[in-house]
Amino acid sequence: MASSKMHKMMLYIKNYAIKCKRVLKLLKYPAKQELMMSMKITIAGFLIIGFIGFLIALIINKLDLFV
Question: Measured between alpha carbons, how far is 18 from 24 in angstroms, rounded to an integer?
Fold first, then answer.
């Protein structure tokens, strides 16, 4: 009984590894232009979220909420 479960688990892992290998073969590196655009968007998102958090902290400190 335990052998059957172990066998099923090994087949699942083997099939998963085959699928992962297939996906990795299809992957390609992004072009420099695509990479730069992704980096710009990511940095802009960090800045916007950070600015919103900073504004919320200022508002909470000015209103003395949660103190």
Answer: 10
